[in-house]
Amino acid sequence: MKNSLLLSATLVFLMGIFFSSLDVKAQDVQEKKVIQLSGIILNSDSTDAVAGVNIYVPTKGRGTSSGRFGYFSMPVLEGDSVIFSFIGLKKQTFKVPNKVESDRISLILTMEVDEIALAEIEVMPYPTEEEFKQAVIALNVVDPMSISRANMSPEMLLRWAESMPASGNENFRYFQEGQAIQNQDLYGPRTLRLLDPFAWGQFIRSIKRGDLKKKD
Length: 216
Known about the structure:
Elements: H1 2-31, E1 34-43, E2 54-57, E3 62-65, E4 71-77, E5 81-86, E6 89-95, E7 104-111, H2 129-137, H3 144-151, H4 154-163, H5 168-185, H6 197-209, H7 211-215
Parallel strand pairs: 1-7
Antiparallel strand pairs: 1-4, 2-3, 2-5, 5-6
C-alpha cells in the first residue's frame, strides 16, 4: 500500500514538472514578437540581384527563397537566426534582435563568391599504365597522307564542286540579272526575236557577208 502511494505521488510530481515546463515554454513563445523580415539580396558588387537564395530558420523548420529580383519576405521571431545559402556563394547568418520596437525589419544583403579549390585529378582511359601502353602499341594508325590523296582525287573534287553553293559574286550577278528582267517587264511583254525586223535585217546582212561560212 505504501509503495503504491509512493508511486502515485512520484507520478504526480513528474507530471507537475512536465506541465510547468510546457507553460514556461509557451510563455516564452508568447512573449516573443513576430517580425516581418524582408529585403533584397545582391551579389558582391551590388550590381545584380541574386534569385533563388535559400532563406530559412534551422530551429523552426520554416523558410522561403528570394524571387527573380532578389526580393524576399518571411515572418520570424525575436532572437531567431536566419540562414542565407546559395550554391557558389558564402553562407551568411542574420540574428534577429531579441527586442525590436517595430514589427518590420528590412535588409540589403550582399553575398560573396565562395571559391573552392579542388585537388588535381588525373583521368586515365585505362586502369593501369601497362594496359595503356599495350593499347597504344596495338593501335592501328592510318597514314594521314593516304586520306589526303583520296580527298584530292579528281572525282572527289568534281563531286564537291557540284555540291558547292554559289559564291557571293555569282549570287550578286544573278540578282542583277533578275532586277534587269523585272525592269524590262515593267514596260510591256518581252519581244520575240523571230518577229523583230531589225534582227532579220542583221541576219540577212550576215549571210551576204558570208559570216556563216567563216564560222564553219
